[in-house]
Write a structure and sequence with these properties.
By secondary structure, the chain is α/β, with parallel strands linked by helices. It contains 10 helices and 6 strands; from the N terminus they run H-H-H-E-H-E-E-H-E-H-H-E-H-H-E-H. It has a 6-stranded mixed beta sheet, with helices on both faces. Strand 1, helix 4 and strand 2 form a beta-alpha-beta unit. Helix 3 runs parallel beside helix 4 and helix 6 packs across helix 9. The longest helix is centred in the first third of the chain and has 18 residues.
C-alpha cells in the first residue's frame, strides 16, 4: 500500500494534463522523448542482460513501445492494469513528475516485476527550467505582490532515491544528467513546453488568464539574466534516472552492522585491525 498522506496531496489536475497531452502532434516533442529513450538504452547496455517481457508506462505509449519493443505499453495514470510478477523489465518514462502518488507508482512497478527484475525510471529533475521559474516568480511578485503555482515542483535526486527505498527496491540508484538547451527567445521556450504536453496542469494553478504584463516582464528578466552569446537564451534540463531491482536472494547483500574486520580509522590509515588475519 502507498502512503495515504501522499494520496491526499493532489498535485496534478489529471483531466487538464490529459487535454494538454492529446493536443501534442505526433511530430512534436520527440526530441525530449528520444533523448530519454537513448539514455535508458545506454543503461540497459550496461546491465548486459536480455529482457523478454518489458512493460512501459508513459504519456506516449506508441513511441515507447517502438523504442523498446515492449509487449505491454501503458498510458500514464494513477493505477495501471499490470499482472503481478509478469515482467522482467519495468520502465516508467518521463511522467513520474506528474504523479499524485509517486511512491504508489513505484510500488506498482515493483509489483509488476519478477524476482530479480529491473526497474528503470526517467523523469525531469528539480533543476529543470529553473531559469523560467525564477523569472516568472520575480515578475509576478513585482506586478501583483504574490506568486501563483506555474511549474510542477519536480523532485530532487535525493528525494527520488529515498522513494525507491520506500517502494522496496533492492540496490536502488538515482543519478542525473544535466543539459543546457538553447532557444532564440523565451517565447520559443514556452511554445516548446506546450508542444511537449507539459503545460501547467497543477491542481492549485490559477484558473484565469495571466496578465500579459507578467509574461512581458518575465521575458525581459530572462533575457537580462540568462541570455547567451548569440542573442538567444538558455534553459536547464535535468534528467534523473532511477534504477532498482525486484528483491531476490541471489543479489549482493549489505554486510551486517558490526561485521567489518577493519575499523574505519585503520582502513583510512592503511593499518590492519588487531582482529584482522
Amino acid at each position: 500500500m502507498s502512503n495515504p498522506e501522499l494520496m491526499n496531496q493532489i498535485l496534478t489536475d489529471r483531466p487538464a494534463l490529459s487535454r494538454y497531452r492529446k493536443r501534442v502532434k505526433k511530430s512534436e516533442g520527440r526530441l525530449l522523448r528520444e533523448e530519454a529513450a537513448s539514455e535508458l538504452r545506454e543503461r540497459l547496455d550496461l546491465v548486459n542482460r536480455s529482457f523478454s517481457s518489458p512493460v512501459i508506462v508513459s504519456a506516449h505509449p506508441k513511441f515507447w513501445k517502438d523504442a523498446f519493443n515492449g509487449d505491454k505499453s501503458l498510458k500514464d495514470g494513477e493505477l495501471h492494469d499490470i499482472e503481478a510478477g509478469a515482467h522482467d523489465l519495468a520502465v516508467h518514462a518521463m511522467c513520474l513528475h506528474w504523479a499524485n502518488d509517486p511512491v504508489g507508482q513505484l510500488i506498482q512497478m515493483k509489483r509488476a516485476l519478477r524476482p530479480d527484475g529491473l526497474f528503470l525510471g526517467i523523469c525531469p529533475g528539480g533543476q529543470t527550467m529553473s531559469e523560467l521559474r525564477s523569472c516568472l516568480a520575480q515578475a509576478e511578485m513585482e506586478i501583483t505582490g504574490g506568486m501563483s503555482p506555474r511549474v510542477a515542483p519536480m523532485a530532487e535526486i535525493r528525494d527520488l532515491g529515498s522513494l525507491l527505498q520506500r517502494a522496496g527496491f533492492a540496490l536502488p540508484v538515482a543519478d542525473s544528467i544535466t543539459r543546457r538547451l538553447s532557444y532564440s527567445s523565451p517565447l520559443h521556450l514556452v511554445h516548446d513546453i506546450r508542444k511537449t504536453g507539459e503545460s501547467n496542469a497543477l491542481e492549485s494553478r490559477l484558473r484565469h488568464f495571466t496578465r500579459r504584463g507578467i509574461f512581458d516582464r518575465a521575458f525581459d528578466l530572462y533575457l537580462e539574466n540568462y541570455g547567451d552569446d548569440t542573442g538567444g537564451i538558455y534553459a536547464t534540463l535535468e534528467i534523473i534516472v532511477l534504477t532498482g531491482w525486484s528483491p531476490h536472494p541471489g543479489q549482493p547483500q549489505p554486510l551486517a552492522p558490526g561485521s567489518a574486520s577493519v575499523g574505519l580509522a585503520n582502513a583510512l590509515s592503511g593499518k590492519k585491525s588487531p582482529t584482522s588475519n
